[in-house]
Amino acid sequence: MTQKEKQFVDYWTEKRKTWSWKKHTYQTFFSVALPISILIDLVNYFVIGDTTYTFFSFAHLFTYLLNFLTLAVALILGAGFVNWNYNEGKYWRILRKQNNNLR
Predict the structure, then answer these.
(1) Is the pTM of this model over 0.85?
(2) What is the domain count for the chain?
(3) pLDDT tens across 24-78, in order?
(4) DSSP of 10-73, one letter per residue?
(5) Residue 70 falls inside a structural domain
C-alpha cells in the first residue's frame, strides 16, 4: 500500500463514521445550489434579457423557488451518491488489494 493510499484509507475510515446526509445537504445547499440558482436567475434577467416577469413579482418568485428546489434536490442527491459511492469503491478496492498482497 502506497503512502497516498494509506492516507486515503485513514481519511475515509474516519470520514465514513461522521458522514451524514444532513451535513451534506446543508453544505451543498448553501455553497452550491443557492449561488448557482441566483447566478442563473440574474444572468437570465440582466444578460439574456428575459422580461417575461418584472424583476420582482410573485409569479417570478414562485418560478424561481420551484427551479431552485428542483436544482437543489438534484445537486444534493447526485453529489451525495457520487461522492459516497466513489470513495467507498476506492476504499474497498484498496483494502482488497492490500488483503490479496498479504496472502
Answers:
(1) no
(2) 1
(3) 999 999 999 999 998 988 888 777 776 666 666 788 788 889 989 999 999 999 9
(4) HHHHHHHHH--HHHHHHHHIIIIIHHHHHHHHHIIIIIS---SS-SS-HHHHHHHHHHHHHHHH
(5) yes
